[in-house]
Structure prediction request, 322 residues.
Amino acid sequence: MVEKKWFIGVDLGGTTIKLAFINYYGEIQHKWEIPTDKSEEGRHITTHIARALDDKMEELGLPNSHFIGIGMGAPGFIEMETGFIYHAVNIGWRDFPLKDKLEMETGLPVIIDNDANIAALGEMWRGAGDGARDLLCVTLGTGVGGGIISGGEIIHGTNGMAGEIGHITSIVDGGVQCNCGKKGCLETIASATGVVRTALETMDEHPEGSLHKISGEITARDVFDAYRAGDAHATEVVNFTTSHLGLAIANLANALNPSKIVIGGGVSKAGDTLLLPLKEEFDKFALPRVKEGADFAIATLGNDAGVIGGAWLVKTKLMQKS
Prediction:
């Protein structure tokens, strides 16, 4: 029975590669990780993934035939049909045939998608999305990423660039330079890096603020902790952050009408300290019926979202062909 077979989820990050064997129902059976070897422009990564999978299968006494295929999330600009990576800055890949190489080295069919997209799919299937077929996922970490699901399908756009929520322009005149080359992107404000930058840039205006008393580097967590304690400076920073983020999410929601808006990434660990002011800002700009239909939630899967989303791709895309 095909339901007895497992899926393989792979989530490629700049530091580690997360791997998991996942059953038909989206339950992780085994998970582990290996370091990401970015030497020689990342040319050894697929070999290391294949070796890690072979070693785990041998350890568990499982043949290749026990698996339907591999669903993998990768950063960078991807040709979705061919799994070809045009450019992945943090890995070193340029014009890299990821799908073809991984299929050749593992002997299994492979499907590739953007890492933020597979995290959204994971949250939809087994996480905070709770099966919602119209879902907006926003990840707030070192950068700002996102995945847009409509009718149960990830929206990719013409050339795979849909869902680049972090590069919505939030400050039209001026703003901070973004890694993408533009200025004033949402990522420069709502990422963990952006929150800290805003706090540091306004520090001198609040000499009595509690953030002044922190020894060492300030983190986004420090800002939200101070906000929770009623610090005026931290309140100003959080209000600035959530006003821009709430406006961007409301504009997206007005266009997409999602039933779930899931906030993930490291900054989301602030929980309601982030969600409550964010929801207030969202409510200012969302159409009444859009607002009524959209439930906010903090992502629940953490680092497992990507591998579970990869398994979902295998189940819905590759299983039909097996």
In short: The chain has eleven helices and 13 strands.
